[in-house]
Amino acid sequence: MKVAVIPARGGSKRIPGKNIRDFCGKPMIAWSIEAARASGCFDEVIVSTDDEKIAEVARQLGAAVPFMRPEHLSDDYTGTLPVIRHAVEWFVGAGHVVDLACCIYATAPFIMPADIQEGEKRLQSAGCSFAFSVTSYAFPIQRALRLADGGRVEMMHPGQFATRSQDLEEAWHDAGQFYWGTAEAWLEERMIFGRDSIGIPIPRYRVQDVDTHEDWESAEYMFEALRARARNG
């Protein structure tokens, strides 16, 4: 079977209640649940949470909450890998044969069903452990700066000062939307950012971390702009 696992713990400190806070007319987590269901890729779409309010909203939106996440996997320091491993282990323990699992973040309102479908397709065809969303940096990272004492500027890579931007290698980063993986890869907690993974490119205008209030506001502006463009054809 193929399962979508949406991690959504309670207790967010920077944006309280962000997983179920209203985002452009729906609870934030609704956009991830709806995209997962619309993709048609999954036998089960579940939410892994330790919070009863989140669990109730998830059920109302059509996701399953077959277990409550244990406390030791619900603190500020728990990473994604052990959370998805726990979910896969629960399905296996319930007698299911899990082939693939896809982690979809609860704060990914720009996720599209077609991207999820493409991730599954590329994972299967490449025979790798993971396939996940990536996007390109808007500016060459080789010309990044740091502000030292007193605001003095230093190049992180001084040797690139004279290199033209167009001659530098394009760099990519995790887009923070979805992560397809084989059951074995999740259970073994293999490293996602490595040669055994495939990147699924997402355009920058559909990528926004939502970790701070500034992030949230930026995401709302971007989302409304995309909706307006869609309405206007």
TrEMBL record:
InterPro entries referenced in this protein's UniProt entry, alphabetically = CMP-NeuNAc_synthase, Cytidylyl_trans, Nucleotide-diphossugar_trans, PseF
Keywords, comma-separated and alphabetical: Nucleotidyltransferase, Transferase
Q: Which Pfam families match?
A: CTP_transf_3
Give GO terms: molecular function aspect only: N-acylneuraminate cytidylyltransferase activity
What is this protein called in UniProt?
Answer: Pseudaminic acid cytidylyltransferase
Organism the protein comes from: Marinobacter maroccanus
